[in-house]
């Protein structure tokens, strides 16, 4: 394990030198009389000020001297202050060899004496004669000389350190790899957090956003791990919804090793019943809940950046009802699929696309379908969105989301207790989970364990969508059990699996109450109904009575007994079901499974029949409206 803060500090210590025979110019540039006696032009860093010189980066230039007769005299050292203390503590290279993504890991002291850290791309040193590093210093409240050439001097200093040549008198920066938060490679032997890297390559991999205060704060720790277990996790015992939420918070690092796609759980129910409290408890696994629990409101671009910071972790979003309904569907796909938008730089070249894999926890008074279509516009709720974010109705327990109040007088007091404890003790459990996971399990072990849990009778499903949902609940249950194995939760063995089963049953009951079968099958039936209702007379030619010729014909209709029969052409059926090149045969099967009568009686692969209509043979699909 390597603490990057400690390793960064080492290279900025001032060089210890002999002060003898150092001559400084008596006018013009500022003096640093304790600078090193190097005989060539160069740079050094002083970390402390005294009456004779200020802390910072100094540049020494030797000025040749001659007497009145033109004879050479000893050179005089002109020492020029460039900026506050600043060092390149590491030169980092992208672990995935992305071209142009080599960076400098910088550390400087601001005007209040605080050390600040950040990273910048090496390529930025070649732009605008030092303007970008100058802006970085000023944004971190680090002073820089007011001279018009200060930016150029700063750039030259950084290049000298980068080259580690004789012009820089100090410790050369180390060269390491950088990676985003999460697993550093496909081998999953190293995990990166903003301030620490754990695992096999801990000594040579750092976070690629080093010094980003917002991201570092997101994963900071407070209180103690033991008190988190006692005051937060222990209160989940007897409360399966809270156990499920906390278990889900441990799921992120297991997604890639088990080959599980991103996606999430949406806790649905009445307001002021404890939903936000269980999100706070889940957020406290990784960091302070006030930062971990974000809001759905905001642009999809903003959530894209947020999701990147949750890579291989948990993304918690409260109040889905506040999301922009116009873009919510696309946002759900984006967050679950883990890929941001393709964007271009000013020069037209492609920017690096943001990528992530994360578990999403959401809450709100609305389920996904209602949030997507709340009456403001006509938005198609697709099965893909429903299976990526699973609605779980959670506020109909004994006391809102709670079943056991653990001595609290009511559900509201219990909620406040959990919020307060989560705000005091946070950030320890998630880090400890990753550290233990690296040494306790291989990816193959995790896959076998997950398959075993998914094979339990309680996680059975009747179609692919239900099985995908079951796997997500099973993974959350497995994460909670592993966290218990690592002595992080104090839960009885099997409690996390039982909570996952409870969640899956709630989701399954809500889904089946809305209609058996997959969401796509329900949509196919509804599309057929809507098409016939809208175009039954205008797009179908009558075979019962003479009528005007029908343009853009989708088929014909006739009467058999007491019902109308529609005869769809192949193109008309494709249009009605909005398949857009999809599998028509599967769609016909779905209609039959829903009890829609489709003739012919013969069982051919095409599921249509040849019928002579107005003296011509046409292959058609006969749809009875009796059960439509």
Which structural class best describes the helix and strand composition? alpha/beta
Count of helices?
Answer: 21
* Uncertain parts: 1-37, 375-380, 601-606
pLDDT averaged over residues: 81
- The outline comes out as elongated
Number of strands: 23
Strand content: 15-25%
Radius of gyration (CA) equals 33 Å
Instruction: Estimate the helix proportion, in percent.
Output: 25-40%
Distance between the termini: 64 Å
Summarize the biggest pleated sheet. Answer: 6 strands, mixed
Short précis:
By secondary structure, this protein is of the alpha/beta class. 35% of the residues lie in helices and 21% in strands.
How would you portray this structure in words?
The protein is built from 21 helices and 23 strands. With 628 residues, it is of the alpha/beta class. Strands 18, 19, 20, 21, 22 and 23 form a six-stranded mixed sheet that branches. Helix 6 (240-249) packs across helix 17 and helix 10 (300-309) packs parallel to helix 11. It is elongated, with a radius of gyration of 33 Å. The protein starts with a strand and ends with a strand. 43% of the residues are buried.
Keywords:
single chain; 628 residues; alpha/beta; five-stranded mixed β-sheet; 21 helices; 23 strands
Write the layout of secondary structure elements.
Elements: E1 2-3, H1 4-10, E2 42-46, E3 56-66, E4 72-83, E5 86-94, E6 103-109, E7 115-121, H2 131-139, H3 150-163, E8 174-179, E9 182-183, E10 190-192, E11 196-199, E12 205-207, H4 213-218, H5 225-231, H6 240-249, H7 252-258, E13 263-268, H8 275-283, H9 289-292, E14 293-295, H10 300-309, E15 313-318, H11 328-337, E16 358-364, H12 368-372, H13 383-388, E17 389-393, H14 411-424, H15 428-440, H16 443-454, H17 464-485, H18 495-513, H19 519-535, E18 540-542, E19 555-560, E20 563-568, H20 570-577, H21 584-593, E21 598-599, E22 609-613, E23 616-624
Parallel strand pairs: 5-8, 8-12, 13-16, 13-17, 14-15, 15-16, 18-19
Antiparallel strand pairs: 1-11, 2-3, 3-4, 5-6, 6-7, 9-10, 10-11, 19-20, 20-23, 21-23, 22-23
Helix pairs in contact: 6-8, 6-17, 6-18, 8-14, 10-11, 16-17, 17-18
């Amino acid at each position: 394990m390597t603490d990057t803060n400690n390793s960064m500090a080492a290279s900025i210590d001032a060089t210890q030198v002999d002060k003898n025979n150092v001559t400084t110019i008596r006018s013009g540039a500022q003096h640093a009389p304790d600078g090193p006696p190097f005989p060539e032009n160069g740079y050094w860093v002083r970390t402390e000020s005294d009456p004779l010189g200020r802390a910072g980066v100094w540049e020494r230039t030797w000025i040749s001297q001659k007497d009145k007769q033109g004879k050479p005299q000893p050179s005089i050292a002109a020492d020029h202050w460039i900026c506050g203390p600043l060092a390149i503590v590491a030169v980092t290279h992208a672990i995935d060899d992305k071209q142009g993504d080599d960076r400098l890991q910088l550390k400087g002291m601001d005007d209040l004496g605080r050390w600040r850290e950040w990273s910048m791309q090496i390529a930025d040193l070649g732009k605008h004669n030092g303007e970008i590093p100058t802006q970085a210093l000023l944004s971190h409240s680090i002073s820089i000389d007011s001279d018009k050439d200060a930016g150029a001097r700063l750039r030259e200093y950084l290049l000298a350190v980068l080259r580690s040549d004789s012009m820089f008198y100090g410790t050369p920066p180390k060269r390491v790899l950088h990676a985003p938060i999460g697993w550093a490679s496909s081998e999953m032997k190293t995990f990166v957090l903003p301030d620490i890297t754990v695992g096999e390559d801990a000594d040579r991999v750092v976070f690629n956003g080093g010094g980003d205060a917002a991201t570092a704060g997101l994963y900071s720790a407070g209180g103690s791990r033991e008190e988190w277990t006692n005051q937060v996790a222990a209160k989940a015992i007897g409360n399966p919804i809270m156990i499920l939420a906390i278990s889900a918070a441990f799921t992120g690092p297991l997604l890639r090793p088990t080959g599980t796609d991103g996606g999430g759980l949406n806790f649905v129910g009445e307001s002021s019943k404890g939903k936000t409290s269980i999100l706070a408890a889940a957020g406290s696994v990784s960091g302070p809940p006030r930062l971990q629990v974000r809001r759905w409101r905001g642009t999809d671009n903003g959530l894209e950046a947020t999701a990147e910071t949750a890579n291989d972790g948990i993304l918690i979003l409260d109040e889905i009802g506040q999301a922009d309904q116009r873009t919510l569907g696309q946002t759900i796909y984006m967050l679950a699929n883990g890929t941001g938008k393709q964007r271009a730089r000013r020069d037209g070249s492609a920017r690096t696309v943001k990528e992530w894999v994360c578990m999403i926890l959401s809450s709100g008074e609305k389920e996904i379908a209602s949030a997507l279509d709340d009456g403001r516009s006509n938005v198609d709720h697709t099965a893909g969105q429903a299976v990526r974010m699973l609605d779980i109705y959670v506020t109909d327990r004994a006391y809102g989301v709670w079943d056991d109040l653990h001595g609290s007088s009511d559900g509201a007091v219990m909620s406040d207790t959990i919020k307060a404890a989560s705000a005091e003790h946070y950030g320890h459990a998630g880090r400890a989970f990753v550290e233990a996971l690296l040494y306790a399990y291989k990816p193959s072990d995790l896959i076998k364990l997950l398959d075993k849990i998914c094979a339990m009778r309680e996680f059975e499903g009747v179609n692919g969508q239900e099985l995908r949902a079951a796997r997500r609940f099973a993974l959350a249950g497995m994460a909670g059990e592993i966290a218990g194995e690592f002595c992080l939760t104090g839960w009885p063995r099997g409690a996390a699996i039982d909570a996952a089963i409870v969640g899956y049953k709630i989701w399954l009951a809500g889904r089946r109450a809305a209609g058996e079968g997959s969401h796509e099958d329900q949509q196919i039936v509804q599309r057929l109904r809507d098409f016939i209702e809208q175009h039954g007379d205008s797009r179908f030619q009558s075979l019962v009575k003479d009528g005007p010729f029908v343009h853009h014909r989708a088929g014909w209709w006739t009467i058999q007994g007491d019902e109308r029969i529609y005869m769809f052409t192949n193109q008309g059926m494709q249009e009605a079901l909005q398949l857009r090149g999809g599998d028509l045969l599967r769609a016909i099967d779905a209609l039959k499974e829903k009890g829609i009568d489709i003739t012919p009686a013969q069982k051919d692969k095409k599921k249509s029949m040849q019928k002579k209509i107005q003296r011509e043979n046409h292959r058609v699909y006969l749809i009875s409206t009796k059960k439509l």
